[in-house]
Write a structure and sequence with these properties.
This protein is about 40% helix and about 15% strand. The longest helix has about 30 residues, at about 285-315. The protein is of the alpha/beta class.
């Protein structure tokens, strides 16, 4: 049975196409299991997974918890506010204390870019990055790719526009790396103040004109404004943002194209996306949510299998 190139999932940058393909194929298998009357398998029975969230999360945390339960793993949930971290304990000391309790896999979300990679240096658990600052969010990138394959079959030559607050978005970066690896063409679009300084180096088309992005794209992946990550006023107002970059049905109808509409959530209805667009027949937002559970099931299982194979090879 094929194994992944690494026993950690820290990002999609540099991840080979064969690894992404392996995760997607396994995810589609688990997607079928999720449609069963009893959507549970004993694949990770006896395994312990720590959901180590230093930042608030609803969708990602619940999705990982559900994936773990569907695989029959034992889950432990960590919250910074109710832990020794709130008393000044360091990240390293906290995780090493927890790992001493024999944790097999750690799912980490942290505000510091590179925190997931840092953790691999001082624990033996498999590490899954559930979002590190504005760096990457690999399972979100994978579930977005899965959703596009589910609806459009192939990503080769597909034109995807990622719209909005690219500068502060870990979702955007994982999508860019994953989509390009799978053969898609990507454009990022938003106000110049919300585009990353290294935009050109990402190997994507860059625009500050929404009309240009709409003419380019087959798929619109719409991001929210991340006010919690901004340190200053990067645009005049939310009303101004909506005027120039909000996705409305009127704007979509002007181009007479059947776009596929995506959004990683949470949605700010009436700002970056209107309700009638989010709830339209072209929206795959709820499919993204369900596919997220399947992708996280696949990642948890494949990382465990990869770790076990390496350990067996060393021991044998």
């Amino acid at each position: 049975m094929a194994a992944l190139s690494d026993r950690h999932l820290l990002g999609l940058e540099g991840v080979p196409q064969k690894d992404i393909r392996l995760i997607l194929d396994r995810a589609f298998t688990f997607r079928e299991i999720l449609d069963r009357p009893v959507p549970k398998v004993p694949t990770l029975q006896g395994q312990t997974v720590l959901n180590f969230f230093y930042e608030s999360s609803t969708r990602t945390r619940i999705s990982f918890e559900l994936a773990e339960k569907r695989l029959s793993a034992d889950s432990i949930n960590f919250s910074k506010s109710s832990s020794s971290a709130s008393k000044g304990e360091t990240l390293r000391d906290t995780i090493r204390t927890i790992e001493a309790m024999k944790i097999d896999t750690v799912v980490i979300r942290h505000s510091a870019p590179g925190s997931a990679k840092l953790m691999t240096g001082f624990v033996d658990s498999n590490i899954i990055n559930a979002g590190d600052g504005a760096h990457e969010h690999p399972t979100q990138g994978l579930l977005d790719i899965m959703t596009l394959e589910e609806h459009l079959k192939s990503l080769k030559g597909l034109k995807v526009a990622i719209l909005g607050d690219i500068k502060h978005s870990r979702v955007a970066r994982s999508n860019i790396h994953g989509l390009k690896t799978m053969g898609a063409e990507v454009m990022i679009c938003g106000p110049s103040t919300l585009l990353p300084y290294e935009a050109e180096a990402l190997g994507v088309h860059v625009s500050t004109d929404l009309n240009e992005a709409l003419e380019f794209a087959d798929v619109l992946n719409i991001l929210r404004i991340q006010l919690e990550r901004q340190t200053g006023g990067l645009f005049p107002s939310l009303r101004e943002y909506r005027k120039f970059f909000g996705i409305t049905m009127k704007r979509l109808n002007q181009n007479k194209k059947k776009y596929t509409i995506m959004h990683p959530g949470p949605l700010n209805r009436g700002v970056e996306i209107d309700a009638d667009v989010a709830d339209s027949e072209h929206s795959v937002i709820l499919n993204q949510v369900l596919n997220g559970v399947a992708v996280r099931m696949a990642v948890l299982v494949l990382l465990t299998e990869t770790h076990n194979k390496r350990k067996k090879k060393i021991d044998g």
